[in-house]
Amino acid sequence: MADTGFSACAAENCNASYDELLTNISPYAWAYAGIALGLGLSVVGAAWGIWLTGSSLVGAAVKAPRIRSKNLISVIFCEATAIYGVILAILLLSKIGDGSEGSSGSLPEDWNYNQWYFAGYSLFASGLGVGLTNVASGVSVGIAGSACALADAQDGSLFVKILIVEIFASALGIFGIIVGIIQSNDAEFPST
After folding, report:
1. In whole numbers, what is the pLDDT of the chain averaged over residues?
2. Which residue ranges form the domains of the chain, and what is each CATH number?
3. Which end is more exposed in the chain, N or C (fewer Cβ atoms within 10 Å of the end residue's Cβ)?
4. Residue 173: other Cβ atoms inside 10 A
């Protein structure tokens, strides 16, 4: 039977831990992963909301063609979640700097590792939090926009009432980006 390498680590009593794993990944990688998650999940939330709203809008417009242009505001509210992700990505990218580690490519002796890791993890958490918030916001705006289109097709007086519910659903994305900005406020990568 061939040795797969797993038993070698057990025989040598390897003490690999999660803190070693987390500290051996560059904080710049954590920061860029947070930016990617924030932007990517925000676009997913917007697309999901537009899909929910758009499909109901097109279906309801068959019965009542007058709702087509008026209910496009629901699609705009969904698209705002993607814009929140873009805003966050720009803000977080400005905190990274150029990523240089000195002219020799090695870290200097007096390098502030705690600040370095804090910045990377903070930007990751900020991006992930905003991305997940924007997925929830996009879906909730999409569901409210779908209900708005269907209700407006039945009774035109319901449009404004349901639109207010949709505005509150859209506020979730605004709250998410505010929390993300606060979360990443003190995250600055040390300069060499």
Report:
1. 85
2. 38-97+110-183 (1.20.120.610)
3. N
4. 30
